[in-house]
Amino acid sequence: MRKIFGKNQSAMSVEVRTQIMIFSLNPATEILSRTPSTLKARLAGLSEPWIKNDEGPKMWSPYDVVGHLIHGERTDWMPRLKIVLELGESRPFNPFDRFAQFEASKGKSLNELLETFATLRRQNLATLKQLNLTDKHFKLKGTHPDFGPVTLEQLLATWVVHDLDHISQITRVMAKQYLDEVGPWVSYLSILKNK
Ligand code: NI
Q1: What is the DSSP annotation of 38-77?
Q2: How does DSSP classify residue 91?
Q3: How far is the CA of 97 from the centre of ligand 1 (A)?
Q4: From the CA of 60, how far away is ligand 1's center (Å)?
Q5: pLDDT digit of tens for each residue in the chain (195 aa)?
Q6: Which domains does the chain show, CATH number per domain?
Q7: Nearest to 35 by CA among 190, 124, 160, 146
Q8: Which among 51, 162, 170, 165 has a CA at the least distance from the CA of 96?
Q9: What span, in angstroms and rounded, lies between the C-alpha atoms of 125 and 127?
């Protein structure tokens, strides 16, 4: 755990606001392993508007987000992790295609996508476990095409937060379907104001 201090406060000067975690693998995989069932519980069997509506032009629907997560399992997290382990910083990661899901998801039901995501995630976490990564691996570096040097633990932490980010996005997109239906309560509902 790491203590967080308010702006302009040093560790010596008092007010501790909260605590945040430093990276380790088991707590990270607790989240990664739950995301498929979280998404299934939230989305499977819902009627079409909850799944296919978005929150504005060029914004993503929950259906699009699940496709994006599938693409991440195939081309982003584990392939990049393997590049770091095998080639280090010498070989930059391939840029991630943020729009691949629009073609790849075509004609597939949401349930198919949820199953595919669950299978790929399970396989990736099994592979990750077999690698028996230790602290010395977590500090290894790779090269991100935009950011330059990144550590393996930053990559893994980002995998976790990326899941949480898109779970939050899905929740927000769904909430916004009732933007005009909540009447004056709109002012109490922060989820309707965020993007
Ligand atoms: Ni994303």
Answers
A1: HHHHHHTT--HHHHH--SSTTPPPHHHHHHHHHHHHHHTH
A2: S
A3: 10
A4: 11
A5: 555 555 555 555 566 778 899 999 999 999 999 999 999 999 999 999 999 999 999 999 999 999 999 999 999 999 999 999 999 999 999 988 888 988 888 999 999 999 999 999 999 999 999 999 999 999 999 999 999 999 999 999 999 999 999 999 999 999 999 999 999 999 999 999 877
A6: 23-192 (1.20.120.450)
A7: 160
A8: 162
A9: 5
Cα(163) to centroid(ligand 1), Å: 8
Say if residues 80 and 93 touch (Cβ distance below 8 Å). Answer: yes
Region of residue 139 (phi > 0: left; psi between -120 and 50: alpha; otherwise: beta): alpha
Task: Write the burial class of residue 56 (CB in 10 Å: 0-12 exposed, 13-18 middle, 19+ buried).
Answer: exposed
> Tokens at residue 104, please?
């790849």
Q: How many Å lie between the centroid of ligand 1 and the Cα of residue 92? A: 19
Determine the pLDDT at residue 62.
98
pTM greater than 0.85 (yes/no): yes
Q: Which amino acid is at 151?
A: T
| Tokens found for residue 72 | 């991440």
